């Protein structure tokens, strides 16, 4: 909104020229989303408590019973602060920005329905696994189909470390992109089992993607670094900035001991956005490093379930996903979360180094 209202006034007030710059608007999108979520947080959490949107913890596997009744669906706060901030600071004529908002909001809606059903139904059951998966596929399919049809976007896959290896996946790109979005969304969801555990690495990954998407949208920088250049995609930097801000604001309340959980409305939407932004800036393969922590958690589940079935009941980890294993061997919850953040920072730095290693 500011871009449309204030930038045209730069002829009169030269200072308003700053509203043209993506970097300026992204920083303030971050600040706005951060302040909104921190300032609205206490009232929002009190409202969740009032309407009884509270986590129901049925089994007490890791002494989580003490968390019984913690308000959940805090992802609505992330969604609200992010969307408001993007509407204020974004260029609202940019198709990439709207597509990202569409997918993020669609996944938030799937998560919302799932959380809501879990709260309302006695057996704590949300959407069926099939139903949830299908809804995720349909939404991702719609967003990627529009994306592929946009002029300037190609179905080429850029392989990090091998600058000349750029296969055009054609229509197979659609299936590939769906796997990235759905995988990323469920990876964040699986990780969301300890205070601050999912939001910390999400903020770090979003921060890292902020740089990637800015570079992809900047023709000279992209050429200099020899990465894919996607004209117009730089505007999504504003979305990434807002995601970092809304995430930090949520962490304010979700840090141990958590006053609120994000729920599926938060985890599914954040995961989908990370996947989609990686697709937009043609860094789909680098996402495996950027979101490496979510990948590790997911692999721990795949290995555990596979080994369990193969051996007829034996386990590799005390329990999967991996954070449960550390809980079971006695590592304090906040230590696990902070160590996982440190690992995420390390992975983000390695991912950023791929910008130079080509
Ligand atoms: C949801 N949800 C948390 C909260 C959060 C296939 C299998 C690996 C699936 C997996 C699973 O269901 N994962 C997805 C995990 C839950 O958090 C809620 O859910 C939202 C995210 N979707 O926002 O609303 C609990 O996590 C704790 N929590 C915090 N702080 C937070 O900030 O402490 C969450 C956020 C909350 C709270 O206690 O109630 C969850 O863990 O349920 N299933 C599992 O993870 C199960 N693992 C398992 O069965 N492992 C087996 C399999 C793989 C063979 C094994 O290793 O043998 C664990 N789930 C639970 N207890 N509930 C097992 C222990």
Structural class, by secondary structure, is mainly alpha
Distance between the termini: 38 Å
Q: Note poorly predicted spans.
A: none
Q: How many independent structural domains?
A: 1
Number of helices: 14
How many beta-strand segments?
0
| Main beta sheet strand tally, sense and closure | none
Mean pLDDT: 95
Kindly estimate the percentage of residues that lie in beta strands according to DSSP: under 5%
Instruction: Round the Cα radius of gyration to an integer and report it.
Output: 20 Å
Helix content: 55-70%
User: Can you tell me the overall shape?
Assistant: globular
Ligand names: Muraymycin D2
What's the SSE pattern? Answer: HHHHHHHHHHHHHH
Salient structural properties:
mainly alpha, 65% helix, binds Muraymycin D2, 358 residues
Please characterize this protein's 3D structure.
- The protein has 358 residues and is mostly helical.
- It has one domain.
- Helices cover 65% and strands 0% of the residues.
- The protein is built from 14 helices and no strands.
- The chain has helices spanning 2-6, 22-50, 75-89, 95-120, 129-149, 172-191, 199-217, 219-225, 236-254, 263-280, 287-290, 292-311, 322-328, 333-353.
- α4 packs antiparallel against α5 (129-149), α5 crosses α6 and α7 (199-217) packs antiparallel against α9.
- The longest helix has 29 residues, at 22-50.
- The chain is globular, with a radius of gyration of 20 Å.
- The two termini are 38 Å apart.
- The structure holds Muraymycin D2 (57M).
- Muraymycin D2 binds at residues 55, 57, 59, 61, 64, 67, 72, 189-190, 192-195, 254, 258, 261-264, 267, 301, 304-305, 308, 315, 319-321, 324.
- Muraymycin D2 binds next to α6, α10 and α12.
